Amino acid sequence: MDSRTRIFLVGGLVIAVLVAGVLSLFASGEPDGLERIAIDQGFDEAAAGPALDSPLADYAVRGVDNESISTALAGVIGVVATLLLTVGILKVVQKRRRPGPGTST
Questions:
Q1: Which end of the chain is more exposed for a tag (fewer CB within 10 A), N or C?
Q2: Helix axes 3-21, 67-97, angle to 10 degrees
Q3: CA-to-CA distance for 98 and 79, rounded, in angstroms?
Q4: What number of other Cβ atoms are within 10 A of residue 75's Cβ?
Q5: CA pair distance 9, 3, nearest whole angstrom
C-alpha cells in the first residue's frame, strides 16, 4: 500500500472515530423516529427490550455511569468493531481470489 493510500485510510479512521466519539455527545436525547411513533401510538410500553444482552445496548456501554462518556465510548467501539470486521472479510475474500501455486493468471 502506498503512503497516500495509507494516509487516506488513517485519516478516514480518525474522522470516523471523532464523529462517533465527539459528535455523539451532541446527539439529541429525544426519541428517534420509530420510538417516537411508538410513543405517539401508545404502544411504547409493550416494547420487549433488546433481543440480545449486548454490552452496547441502547447506545451505551454497560458499566460506565457517565451517560456522555458511555455514548461516546459505544460509538468508538462500534467504529473499531466495524473496521475489524471489514478488514477480516476483505482478507478472506483476498485469499480466495489469489491463484494457487502452479496456476496461471
A1: C
A2: 150
A3: 29
A4: 24
A5: 10
Q: pLDDT tens-digit profile of 10-51?
A: 999 999 999 999 988 888 778 888 889 989 999 888 877 767
Task: Give this prediction's pTM.
Answer: 0.71
Pairwise CA distance, residues 92 & 59, whole Å: 30
**55-98: pLDDT as tens digits:** 888 888 989 999 889 999 999 999 999 999 999 999 999 888 87
Instruction: Classify burial at 71, counting beta carbons within 10 Å of its beta carbon; exposed 0-12, middle 13-18, buried 19 or more.
Output: buried
Spans of all domains in the chain: 3-97
The amino acid at residue 38 is A
3-state helix, strand and coil shares in percent for the chain, rounded to the nearest 5: 65, 0, 35
